[in-house]
Amino acid sequence: MDQVRECLIAAGISRITVSRVSGHGAQRREEVYRGKKVVPNLIPKMRIEIAVNEEFVDTTIDAIVEGAKSVSDVEGEIGDGKIFITPLEECIRIRTGERGGSAI
After folding, report:
1. Which one of 16, 24, 36, 51 has the minimum C-beta count within 10 Å?
2. Do 85 and 60 touch, CB atoms closer than 8 A?
3. What are the tens digits of pLDDT across the range 26-65?
4. Measured distance CA(26)–CA(42) in Å, rounded
5. ∠ at Cα 83 (31, 71), nearest 5°?
6. Which domains can be identified in the chain, with CATH numbers?
7. Beta strand 36-38 with 31-33: parallel, antiparallel or unpaired?
8. What is the rounded CA–CA span in Å between residue 45 and residue 74?
């Protein structure tokens, strides 16, 4: 998480929201609990939400990929994460009433 945040800040993206979430994907992590191997149903993860204007989308993607990709392999590893890009219909800054890109 720290590496991703540093890459985002270096790219000029400083407004992010981070949440602790649980989930699972293709990765499996076995733990030993009271002498038994256990595969937890849900694995602790971090979710980052970032709203950017259209001209910053590629910059943001590049920064996240650079910070999140495992360095042990050229292609990364299972569990490095995913990026979902969705259109943001409207953004309204409550304090000022600004709308659209200037509110982001």
Report:
1. 36
2. no
3. 766 677 878 888 777 788 889 999 999 999 999 999 999 9
4. 12
5. 60
6. 2-103 (3.30.70.120)
7. antiparallel
8. 23
